[in-house]
Design brief:
homodimer, alpha+beta, 2 domains, 8 helices, 4 strands
């Protein structure tokens, strides 16, 4: 049995397929060449059925031997420490990588996720729209000056930033060609494609099982 | 000259005094017994005047010798690596500390800051209120089971989580006595009190200088 186990939901509706955040961990493992298993907790009752493992009722969470971790950002930093593909060995490059990993979580996703939530609530032109436009403009400028966020090469910071920026509604918001080229470049990586295909396959297999049980 | 330099704004209005995020870095240095200097960039034109150092136009940012870092979360992890007071040496405790540091940024602040922003826009009972209540309820439950978030002791994760939760409007939202006791306990630490007093003193000195220049 693999030492690394990524936990996700056993099924999700079509909408989030290819976007559930276990994908971030699968992708990191694929980039790093780390063996991993995937296990699931039930979609039904997800708000409360795994609070002992993830105190906000979310996925993913990670086992590494006896170590139990949640928060996709923390799991990514943990996996990155195992692989120079994800985390450059030079201390300055590593600090820059952590900085941009946190920026993806706390300067970009802190705006994009609530904006998207308000949009889902039917409030398309909501009060976070201006703030989101500013943050995405800043990213557009930064990506005009460099191909990768940290250390002059692909790192876990690009993995996370691209995953935050590739959300359909965020990607379609405004016209930022440099950001679009960046997201395309990062998600063209074979490790992303395998991780995404594997996640979608898991949920499709769950569909098939449901159909079988119902017949 | 100190190797560590924390950068903040040269002045802010009364409202944010005691809450500008350079406080997180001052507090961490005080906890760790690290020498540091504080320098400022102008409040006027802050949206664009230091983009080369902080690509979203915010503060704080940190110099550690030649290393330049932004994102308060990344700066905290960098400072924490210098001190067992902030980051436990045991690898499992350290992983748990990073996990809860990221949780403060991406599971709590990702909801509290946009909620607060909507409230400031005049929308007190906004569409993020339910989500915020759920997240704060989860924290209340977690803090009912343990005194500190990670490693059975104070860590940088408590510093950051308490700083996120102590924001006046967030603290006043609902009735969560365990969370309130936690915030009180963490912010009763002498290192917090010194960091907060020093920040407020800097902005008050800037007031006095303005008055002098105007007279």
């Amino acid at each position: 049995m693999s030492e690394l186990t990524i936990w996700t939901l056993d099924w999700v509706p079509d909408g989030p397929r290819g976007f559930v955040r276990d994908l971030r961990l699968r992708w990191a493992c694929e980039e790093a060449g780390l063996d991993y298993a995937v296990r699931t907790v039930p979609f039904d009752g997800r708000e409360t059925n795994h609070l002992a493992r993830q105190p906000f009722g979310q996925v993913p969470f990670l086992n590494d031997g006896d170590l139990e971790l949640f928060e996709s950002g923390a799991c990514l930093l943990h996996l990155a420490a195992k692989s120079e593909t994800l985390m450059p060995p030079d201390p300055v490059d590593a600090a820059e990588t952590v900085q941009w990993t946190i920026a993806a979580l706390n300067s970009i996703e802190m705006v994009t996720v609530p904006w998207w939530f308000l949009k889902l609530c039917g409030d398309e032109d909501n009060q976070l729209t201006g703030w989101m436009g500013q943050r995405l403009d800043h990213i557009e400028r930064v990506l005009g000056e460099r191909q990768w966020l940290a250390g002059g090469r692909f790192t876990v910071a690009d993995l996370l930033m691209a995953d935050v920026l590739r959300v359909n509604d965020v990607r379609a918001f405004g016209n930022r060609p440099t950001t679009e080229a960046y997201v395309t470049r990062v998600t063209d990586r074979p490790a992303f494609k395998k991780a995404q295909a594997d996640q979608i396959a898991l949920f499709e297999a769950a569909d098939a099982k449901k159909t079988e049980q119902a017949s």
